[in-house]
TrEMBL record, chains A, B:
The lineage of its organism: Archaea, Methanobacteriati, Methanobacteriota, Stenosarchaea group, Halobacteria. InterPro entries: HotDog_dom_sf, MaoC-like_dom, MCH/BMMD. This is MaoC family dehydratase. Pfam families: MaoC_dehydratas. CDD domains: YdeM. Residues 16-122 form the MaoC-like domain.
């Protein structure tokens, strides 16, 4: 995968990651940030939820996505941070025992001034072959010919 | 604020929440889910980052948003979970010492079958009067005349 803005082009794709989802971590995240009972109470979730059991907070799923993205992709690039996300969709429940991975596809690139450019990437979070979450990320990358110091690298 | 789908209508608005952002929590979240140096290394962030200091992960900001939303809004409604988010934008850095609050505005409501409806809400995360993050949430709510048991409530 590319590292500077100029290295990206539409159509590039890559798959990576293997994040094991545990009940313990679902409960830990939910108790701190999303204490709705279908994320925090395994027994009640099993008996009463429309999902048939405990599921991860959607924001926990995006956090796990980010950890894989940083470890296996962003940390090796001149990423300057993200402007935002479009079309974030939680498509399927994420449950204890799932193993998540990522599929990235570059959709579009656009310069945003002399020192940086914007890359639109489709990010799909997979559990085996099934897409459980998807989004379009708008990420800024430094241009190769820029003064690197200005980019904080 | 409303509790069932039928209680929502476009234009309703509400402000609430007071979430104190600490350096300790920024470092804790980032070390687990977003270990980029401008979220995990206060000294390097101060000296080298384009942001001029340590900032919270954008996904930490959305997690803090969710905690306020659950505590002061969703927990008193017949919410069934969210389909997704449109137009998520991280507009300003979130830093240690900030106090975040939320402004909700109902944009649109739409039935999605006999038992539930979709409510589109603009959520703005504020630091004092400044919007630091915004998004449009697509949340499902049970209809008032539904068999409550089917909704897990």
């Amino acid at each position: 995968m590319p590292t500077f803005f100029e290295d990206f082009s539409a159509g590039q794709t890559e798959e990576f990651g293997a994040y094991d989802v545990t009940e313990e971590e679902i409960l830990q995240f939910a108790s701190q940030y999303d204490p709705q009972w279908f994320h925090t109470d395994p027994e009640r979730a099993r008996e009463e939820s429309i999902y048939g059991g405990l599921i991860a907070s959607g924001w926990h799923t995006t956090a796990m996505m980010m950890r894989m993205l940083v470890d296996e992709f962003l940390s090796e690039t001149a990423a300057l941070g993200a402007k935002g996300i479009d079309e974030l969709r939680w498509r399927r429940p994420v449950r204890p025992g799932d193993t998540l991975s990522l599929r990235l596809t570059v959709l579009e690139t656009e310069t945003e001034g002399p020192d940086r450019g914007l890359v639109k990437t489709r990010i799909e979070v997979l559990n085996d072959a099934e897409v459980v979450c998807s989004m379009i990320a708008l990420t800024m990358f430094a241009r190769r010919d820029d003064e690197r110091d200005d980019c904080g690298n």
